[in-house]
Specification:
By secondary structure, this protein is α+β, with helices and mostly antiparallel strands. It contains two helices and eleven strands, in the order H-E-E-E-E-H-E-E-E-E-E-E-E. Strands 1, 2, 3, 4, 5 and 6 form a six-stranded antiparallel β-sheet that branches. A five-stranded antiparallel β-sheet has the order 9-8-7-10-11, with no helix packed on it.
């Protein structure tokens, strides 16, 4: 079988393949495991705050979350870095240039308290209990006794939980 490629399409096709990685980089997104860091600007959308990123997409912002994390409330026009999880849910946000001070803790899952919104781990330092930032923190498929890693925000709340590697 012989495949014939029209030379008219060869140049543009090669250009796309060569430039695609640079286009992804220019979007402002940076991948960290299952999380992405994206820079954007705070805008008003439907009388609420949102982050508009370079590709034009927006993410809703919980104005009270900044207060809980010890940040000043964000204002329209602020440049920020948002961290989104694998479901494109904002799990943290900082002013652009500020460093995130998250902590990772690994241990054996003892208990996932859905009613109390907390997780209990057995770590090298003993049993530790951490509050959940959101009830939606994923635990699906993680049985008690599983070795897990939790990501804690600046307030010490669990913003992500997954099986340890």
């Amino acid at each position: 079988m012989h495949v014939h490629v029209n030379s008219m399409w060869l140049g543009p096709l090669l250009a796309i393949l060569i430039l695609l990685p640079y286009a992804v980089e220019a979007s402002g997104a940076e991948q960290h495991g299952s999380h992405k860091s994206i820079t954007g600007v705070i805008v008003k959308k439907d009388n609420a705050m949102a982050v508009k990123i370079p590709d034009g997409s927006t993410f809703q912002v919980n104005e009270n979350a900044a207060k809980r994390h010890g940040h000043e409330p964000f204002k329209e026009g602020d440049e920020v870095t948002v961290i989104v999880d694998e479901n494109n849910t904002v799990i943290d946000m900082h002013l652009k240039g500020e460093e995130s001070k998250h902590k990772m803790v690994t241990g054996k899952l003892i208990h996932m308290g859905k009613m109390e919104k907390q997780v209990k781990l057995q770590t090298a330092e003993g049993e530790k209990v951490f509050p959940l930032a959101k009830q939606e923190v994923k635990t699906k498929g993680l049985a008690e006794g599983t070795k897990v890693t939790v990501e804690l925000n600046e307030a010490g709340e669990v913003i992500d939980l997954h099986a340890a590697k």
